[in-house]
Specification:
single chain, 203 residues
Length: 203
C-alpha cells in the first residue's frame, strides 16, 4: 500500500492492492487523526486516550483552554486560548485604579511554553494606624484552581514613593489562591498604591 508524497506515512489503496474498503479507510483515518489537532476535555482525558504519544502530536484541552504538543518527552503548552481579563475581587481597604493604573485584573497566558499569570491595573490601599487591611491580603475571593501556582510565587510590583522608603513591594501569589503584599505596613512603609502592570508569574 503506497503512502502520501509528503513523507507523512498516510496510506492509500493502489490499483494493485486488493480492494478492502475497511482497511483503506481505517488506514487513512488512523494516519491522519494523530496528525490533526485532537480535542479532549482535560489533560487527564488526553493522557488516558494517547498512551504512546509521538513527537509532533497536537491536542486542544477544552477545560484548560490550551493547545498542547508532544515534544518527544512530554506534553508542553503551545498556546493559550482566548483568555479574558478577570477582575480581582478586592478585600475591604483595597480599591481598584490605584494611581490611575486601571482595574486590578489577571489572565492566563502562554509564556515560553508555560502557563503563566499576567496582571494589570493598580490597587489603592487605605491603612489603619499604619497597618495594611486584611493582613496585607488584597483579594477577597481567592484565585480559581486553574490560576493558582503549584508553589508560592513571589514577584516585584512598583509602588508609590510617598509615605514609604520603598519603590517596589513583593506580591506573594500563594498556592491557595491568595494574593499577599509583603513589605508594607508600619509607620514608615505605607505606600498608598501598588501597580500590577507588567507583572507575570509562572504557574
Amino acid at each position: 500500500m503506497p503512502t502520501d508524497d509528503y513523507g507523512q506515512g498516510v496510506p492509500w489503496l493502489d490499483n494493485s492492492d486488493k480492494p478492502d474498503l475497511r482497511a483503506g479507510t481505517k488506514g487513512i483515518v488512523d494516519a491522519l487523526v494523530p496528525r490533526s489537532v485532537m480535542t479532549y476535555s482535560t489533560a487527564a482525558e488526553r493522557n488516558a486516550a494517547i498512551l504512546t504519544p509521538v513527537a509532533g502530536m497536537v491536542a486542544w484541552l477544552d477545560t484548560e483552554m490550551l493547545f498542547t504538543g508532544y515534544d518527544g518527552t512530554s506534553w508542553v503548552v503551545l498556546a493559550a486560548g482566548s483568555q479574558q481579563w478577570t477582575t480581582i475581587s478586592l478585600a475591604s481597604g483595597y480599591a481598584h485604579d490605584g494611581n490611575s493604573n486601571g482595574t486590578a485584573q489577571y489572565r492566563l497566558v502562554n509564556l515560553f511554553g508555560e502557563v503563566s499569570l499576567m496582571f494589570r491595573g493598580g490597587v489603592g490601599i487605605t491603612y489603619s494606624s499604619g497597618s495594611p487591611p486584611n493582613n496585607s491580603q488584597i483579594n477577597a475571593t481567592t484565585l480559581p484552581v486553574n490560576a493558582r501556582p503549584t508553589t508560592k510565587r513571589t514577584i516585584s510590583c512598583a509602588c508609590s514613593v510617598i509615605d514609604t522608603t520603598l519603590s517596589s513591594v513583593k506580591l506573594d501569589i500563594n498556592s491557595d489562591g491568595t494574593l499577599v503584599l509583603i513589605g508594607i505596613g508600619s509607620t514608615t512603609e505605607n505606600p498608598p498604591w501598588v501597580s500590577l502592570n507588567g507583572c507575570f508569574a509562572s504557574l
